[in-house]
Amino acid sequence: MLPAVLAGLFMTRFDFNVVNVAAPSLQRDLHSGQAALEMVVGGYAFTYAAGMIIGGRLGDQIGYRRMFLLGITTFGATSLLCGVAQTSGQLVAARLLQGLAGAILVPQILALITAMFPAHERPKAMSWFGVTLAIGAIAGQALGGVLIQAGVFGLDWRVIFLINVPVTIITILASVRLLPHHLRTGRHHRFDVLGSLGITGSLGLVLVPLILGREQHWALWIFITMALAVPVFAATMWWERRSAEPVLDLRLFRSRAFAYGLPANATFMVFFGGFSLVMTLLLQGGLGLSAQAAGLAFLPLAVVFAATSMLGRRLVTRLGGRAVTLGSLVIAAGLLVMIVELHVEGGHITVALLLPINAILGLGEGLAVLALIGSILSNVAPAEAGSAAGVLTTAQNFASAAGVAILGSVFFAFLGSGTGLEAYTGSSEKVAAIALVFVLGTAGLAALIGRPEPATRISQAPAATGRG
Length: 468
Known about the structure:
Elements: H1 2-30, H2 34-50, H3 52-62, H4 64-84, H5 88-116, H6 122-150, H7 159-162, H8 164-178, E1 182-184, H9 193-212, H10 220-242, H11 256-286, H12 291-296, H13 299-311, H14 313-319, H15 321-345, H16 351-377, H17 385-415, H18 421-447, E2 465-467
Antiparallel strand pairs: 1-2
């Protein structure tokens, strides 16, 4: 079952990052402006993050297998729409739909792992989840650049979307055969419409202004819109406390691991999402590397990340939240080295100096990502697996999108009208210092998680059962 569902995860992470390397081709072919390019990236991130909790709850109601198959089929169809788009408007609309498809798909993956794997095998499955998460994100930049530069069938940028179609067909065929035919939570769920609208609306009131803020020169309406998210979210939480079947089950936060692990995930993903973009800008804009060469520069990070996720899973299981603290401190060390190198070398920085830093970051991320996911879901009952996975993936993807907007805006603010390597290294140094703050915040929050909790459950609903 695991390779089938992780193929869906790979595609969603691949498509989250792949458009970064395709930006020049989109501008040339579709005459896309800056706002359209930001929506191609940010629109996907918004609908992807905003729909996660709803997707998780629908999995609890309808069944994880059914929702996974619906999500993977829709994701393939919307990828096809992206690949055949003739205008920037069509591509933006297709990307919004693709993000929604991802929001249906991804919560079911974590829910299936949580519901189907026994506790002693779950860390192994989570390690593969972490490896896929990393490889999908890095492949979006590395493999995306290779595909575009190779000019497959003369498709140019369209190939990065159309390649999802055959992968989707294979995944559907495997999933129909391998996924359990029925998973029951043991109770009937009513869909919380007001809660769903409130959570999606409050996320949108923050994400959309963050995405458009730099383009709009941070006009007053940007800050007013973001401020409105506070009363909307507060009203939603008031409703959720009184709802018999809330879309966001606040009982999840009774678990210490969930209460501290969720914000730790958020601060980490702000760094992970935003800093990856800044590194790409430094490599392509500053050092003048091609999309393919810049993507390949991330290989040390991906290889070390994957190896650490696999070889270090026993350590992660034993340390629990402390593995997140350890991984975050390793990342912090890498960022400190990078800050010093950028400050000292300036316009003389080389790719050779950045590659070891990527390896250090990969080591820390391999420890932290796996432990973050495993620790937060360790005490979730199978009956609430979809809801918990939806909340977790919402927080991760919202934070990742916010990281792109925040760190990207800081980078361009310091860059100004500069075009030389000295300007790029100066901006990257400032962003690395801000990223360091988020990483240290993750370390502090993770220290409060502590050791893995006993195998008690926050919900007393009957365990899910599988047939077929």
